[in-house]
Amino acid sequence: MQLSHLNPPQREAVKYLDGPLLVLAGAGSGKTRVITQKIAYLIEECGMQGRNIAAITFTNKAAREMQERVAQLVSGKSARGLIISTFHSLGLQLLRQESRHIGYKPNFSILDAADAGKIISDALGTTDKQLIRSTQSLISNWKNALTDPDHAILQATDDAGVHAAKVYRAYQDTLQAYQALDFDDLIRLPVELFRQRPDIESQWQDRLRYLLVDEYQDTNACQYTLLKQLTGSRGQFTAVGDDDQAIYAWRGADIENLKNLQRDFPKLHVIKLEQNYRSSVRILKAANTLIANNPKLFEKTLWSEHGLGEQIQIVSTKDEEHEAETVATRLQAHKFEARTRFADYAILYRGNHQARILEQALRNHRIPYVMSGGQSFFDRAEIKDILSYLRLLANPDDDPAFIRAATTPKRGIGNQTLEKLGSYAAERHLSLFAAVFETGMEQQLASKQYDTLHLFGDFINRLQWRAEREPASVVLQDLLTAIDYETWLFDSEEQRAAEQKWKNVQDFVGWINRKSDDPEQDKPPTLVELTQKIALITMLEGREDEEPDAVKLSTLHASKGLEYPHVFLVGVEEDILPHRESVDTGKIEEERRLMYVGITRAQRSLTLTYALKRKRAGEWQVIQPSRFINEMGSDDLWFAGRPVTDKAAAKARGTERLAGLMAMLKKE
Ligand code: ATP
Ligand code: MG
């Protein structure tokens, strides 16, 4: 196997098999490339079976890309059984095989954050969003710390703590009754299982002889424990990461895990990569200058052989609409001059809410775009409607799915019926679906209500029978016809909205068809498998399929690990990047890392934009450009069309701000 397209330390990392290995290096230094090449090396050179190797990526998208690259490097046969997936998908795969040991059927449902939020809302007896969200994140923290409800109650120091812990217990009981798991469970339960059953743990250790982990800096404690369990005392793994790109502390990730590796694996070998292959010298220098403002965990250097490159453009705009408009026109002009494709561009932003106005401007300019990391395709109401049927077919105990399916489209099953059904089911510890077929239920309801309910139950039963025997695509098509979803959409929505939604549903059908007929697979996935898979896709990213030539719109978080020839980073302002809350709570370093991630996505050109005023809660507010612009050093920055020194830049910004203020005053 050729390893000539790797530099010496990369080659060393690929060949190193004497024990645990950490590759610690900055952005664009080829860490992910090391992982891909190492998978190929293990299979082609070391004769390992694909099924004995697992590589863990941070997103499903990254997993797909890696699968494609590995497929080009190794023959299909020897790669069979190779796992390239996220921690969550790995957990799912593991649980599907072992669920009976933890009291779950293999067809368990996976609840998304919205479903989970509803259960928590019921347990709390409130619709206060803030409270629901904070309780949800408490529960998530408990789960990631492997604290069960009983211990959470014991550890509570005040009444509020006890109450939250009780809500946690009620939440867990409900999940169990629904035969449902949340995302955290997909990691937590395998860890628990391995603790209780060392025999099963050692079976998995035998199966997975080599582990590779990308974006290691963003693993949380629970994931780290799972990694340790899977590698066992053998410690045969390669982890790659960059402490400067740790941006998921808010989801429980902990950079300390980088240090813990050294503590837990004294034989850990560390390799550093220093050559950046991605970005021009100017972009790299600005990124390095910025991140030097953070205290260092590990000493790293990064250099590039690429040319100096274009200057980094800093563009001041009047307001957010002007900003979006400026990005669209600059992008078009750049594309025309540089003869590039739309797909060579990415527009990155801090928060999802910034996307809408950009989308509008791109549409006005007829620039095709795709969005990732925003509202997921599978998160749309119409898709969730259809999914609720699939979830119910897969798992009749899934009560939230039952309620949504039974009431969408409206078929005469109202709140009253559902309440009676709910209390009947609760008293007897039945699922809603099972309660439908109880004779006792007949006495609870008026005969018309009962008939409607029963009709629905029979309908689901028949579909279930078919779903076990027929291809998912056929069953789905018949389901749509039977519930006449199209008519319902057009009756309940405006024409244009209905058309768009129906198109989305058809896209979804197309997606299912492709998944069921994929010739690469040994056997077509069942409806249960597809439904569980979708739940995972919704967690982190948007649509799977991408248009061939379109600008990418993405949050900074979702852009991690990716690269684009030309990047626009918008809203580079105080209160956005760094985010106001982060400044207040002293988390400025994580914000700086996020900015570093953004800058280092760019290969050839980088444009930063900010608005001088922005509407907040209906009021115009004057905006300060982000402090991070100053921290990038001024040598390679070009402020709105002219080069400036530090002092002049500050002055220019002052004048611009003044001009913005004047313009604003004039308007009002
Ligand atoms: P990030 O920290 O952003 O995840 P990374 O360290 O994982 O970055 P890669 O994505 O693996 O970096 O590599 C960055 C780019 O450099 C890719 O386009 C990759 O193909 C290229 N590259 C990596 N190593 C080499 C090499 N030895 N020779 C030429 N190109 C390389
Ligand atoms: Mg990478």
TrEMBL record:
Instruction: Kindly list the positions annotated as binding ATP.
Output: 25-32, 278
What does the UniProt keyword field contain?
A: ATP-binding, DNA replication, DNA-binding, Helicase, Hydrolase, Isomerase, Nucleotide-binding
Q: Got a GO cellular component term for this one?
A: cytosol
Its EC number is 5.6.2.4
Q: Where is the UvrD-like helicase C-terminal domain?
A: 281-561
Q: Which PROSITE patterns match?
A: UVRD_HELICASE_ATP_BIND (PS51198), UVRD_HELICASE_CTER (PS51217)
Keyword RNA-binding appears in the UniProt entry: no
Q: Where is the UvrD-like helicase ATP-binding domain?
A: 4-280
Q: Does the keyword Disulfide bond apply?
A: no
Subunit info? Homodimer.
What the record says about family reads: Belongs to the helicase family. UvrD subfamily.
What function does the entry list? Rep helicase is a single-stranded DNA-dependent ATPase involved in DNA replication; it can initiate unwinding at a nick in the DNA. It binds to the single-stranded DNA and acts in a progressive fashion along the DNA in the 3' to 5' direction.
The molecule here is called: ATP-dependent DNA helicase Rep
Cite the source lineage. Bacteria, Pseudomonadati, Pseudomonadota, Betaproteobacteria, Neisseriales
